[in-house]
Amino acid sequence: QVQLVESGGGSVQAGDSLRLxxxxxxxxxxxxxxxWFRQAPGKEREFVAAIKWSxxxxxxxxxxxxxxxISRDNAKNTVYLQMNSLKPEDTAVYYxxxxxxxxxxxxxxxxxxxxxxxxxxxxxxxx
Length: 127
Fold this sequence. Notes:
The chain is an all-beta fold. The chain has strands spanning 3-7, 10-13, 18-25, 34-39, 46-51, 58-60, 68-73, 78-83, 92-98, 116-117, 121-126. Strand 4 and strand 5 form a beta hairpin.
């Protein structure tokens, strides 16, 4: 079983930065791919970024590429999402999620590829 807790959200101005954290319980977290998703009011949940269990492969949505960076510290059971040059359209609740399978070769970029989810953290970017 894996439990995820996101933190680091807040209200910022356009152009500012935030770093989200996804802290996990469970010994198998370091063996699982992790994704970040977000959901804005009235919109569907969308993929933001993902990282392989080993940390050597990362994937990004086009809308955040070059601005966001996903990383992980398996010794701390934590995955991070560094968000720079934030825009008002980045406003959403951000969720982290973990792969149901350990040591996956691939990394899912859709929400149905993940089974463990956190409760979300709100990010609000004002212009």
